[in-house]
Amino acid sequence: MRNSWSNRKLYQTLCRKKTFTDEFEPGKEKLKRVLNIFDLTALGIGSTLGCGVYVLAGTVAKSIAGPAVVLSFIVAAIVSSFSGVCYAEFAGRVPKAGSAYIYSYVTVGEFIAFFIGWTLYIEHTIGTASVAKAMTNYLDALLGDPQKRYFKKHLPMHVDFLGEYPDFASFFFVIFIALIVAWGVKKSSTLNKVFTMLNLLTLATVVASGFFLGKLSNWNIPKSEIPPGVDGGNGGFSPFGWNGIIAGAARCFYGFIGFDSIATTGEETKDPKKTIPLAIILSLFFVTVAYSSVASVLTLMWPYYDQDPDAPLPVIYANMGMPIIKYMVTCGAVFALMTT
């Protein structure tokens, strides 16, 4: 009997749910509600539309989906929207900070929320480190690799699971961003909006120039015109068939990760029950349009099988003799990394 009671007590403890009573009453808020729909939409776009928009389309188009990478992005967007509407519904029901952690705490219990909370912590820690590393690598390459050459010579690290050298620039970049966030949510939101607008302006320039310079013939390249030894599939708009489109969608899905950051602002948003769901939907819409447009002009301007997998847009503009737009795209990637 005692064991049965203990097991039942343990089960109740692990499955107890978070409840809110008077926490939503005026004057009980711990954080200032200063964010509006424009702030949250910019946050969602900035967090989702990262440097992947400058790289992902070229990688998928080259050897996975071809020009049909546009369809891959649309399929990925549809799948992402299922997750998006779930976040939107939970944000409307539980307008609190904490994202998936607080949602699971309220609906399924503390034990599951514990694991989700730590998973989110690990996800954001690894993501922050990855973006910081990508940021400094990008800037270092743009300046001629001064940091890489210096530290590989003077402070090399000969450990298999570590980098070739200590990346101090990444460390100071993370500290810099942390100071901006600590400065205040409104000020950091304003800075995020500035970088997001610069990123969108860069993408608009790419799309406009791409549709002007693109050739429809690049969407219908026959197999006979594909150079020998190049993995170009069967040619045409979908050289790798539906298998390639779906495989490409799996890769493109990564490009839609980030909109859930909107859900973490529940206690800093004006009217979160309406603003957060709408911001999530708007972010997914604008990101889908941006990815699809960039993928379209990328494959219209240059044959899909000849795309550079690491930096497709700068290479294309360099090959077309347009260095100004090339450097604009390079700066746009930096802006995207800043918002991510």
TrEMBL record:
Q: Which domain of life is it from?
A: Eukaryota
Where in the cell?
Membrane
| Assigned keywords, A-Z | Membrane, Transmembrane, Transmembrane helix
Molecular function terms from GO = L-arginine transmembrane transporter activity; L-lysine transmembrane transporter activity; L-ornithine transmembrane transporter activity
Q: Which GO terms describe its biological process?
A: L-arginine import across plasma membrane
What's its membrane topology? Answer: Multi-pass membrane protein
Q: Coiled-coil region(s) at which residues?
A: none
What is the protein name stated in its UniProt record? Cationic amino acid transporter C-terminal domain-containing protein
Species assigned in the record: Aphis glycines
